[in-house]
Amino acid sequence: MAKKLIGIIKLQLPAGSANPAPPVGPALGQHGVNIMQFCKEYNEKTKELSGNIVPVEIEVYADRSFSFILKSPPASDLIKKAIKIKTAAATPGVENIGEITKSQLEEIAKIKMEDLNAYDIESAIKILAGSARSMGVVVKD
């Protein structure tokens, strides 16, 4: 028989360096999950992605066990890394902080494709171009 699901927790954590400090500890502690076990498993699965933020969706069951699904890094982080900037523009549309090419967006789209609501790579590129523009990044052909 399937385990009874009592909660879903969504977090964005640095790859390979989850620890029991907030936000992990309080989020998992209120459901009675073994925090150190989660941290060890998460760090093991994400050690090759270090330097990225990796979203995780944790399903907590009635017997206090858990399972989790790793997602791809946020589009904004991937765009910032592609054009080597630290932060997005304070006033997008007025302030331009960099340029990104369609080929760079295509590389990001290949990484993000499974988590995007897109049928093909072209529509995924359009979604990412919108994200880039909202960050103050100019999209070049």
How would you explain this protein's 3D organization?
This protein is α+β, with helices and mostly antiparallel strands and 141 residues long. The protein has 2 domains: 5-70, Ribosomal protein L11/L12, N-terminal domain (Ribosomal protein L11, N-terminal domain, 2-Layer Sandwich), CATH 3.30.1550; 75-140, Ribosomal protein L11/L12, C-terminal domain (Arc Repressor Mutant, subunit A, Orthogonal Bundle). Helix content is 37%, strand content 23%. The chain contains 5 helices and 5 strands, in the order E-H-H-E-E-H-E-H-H-E. The strands form 2 sheets. A 3-stranded antiparallel β-sheet has the order 1-2-3. A two-stranded parallel sheet has the order 4-5. A hairpin with a 4-residue loop joins strand 2 (53-61) and strand 3 (66-70). The longest helix has 14 residues, at 121-134. The chain is elongated. The N and C termini lie far apart (54 Å). The mean pLDDT is 85.
Short description:
The protein has 141 residues and is of the alpha+beta class. The protein has helices spanning 24-29, 35-46, 75-83, 102-112, 121-134; strands at 5-14, 53-61, 66-70, 98-101, 137-140.
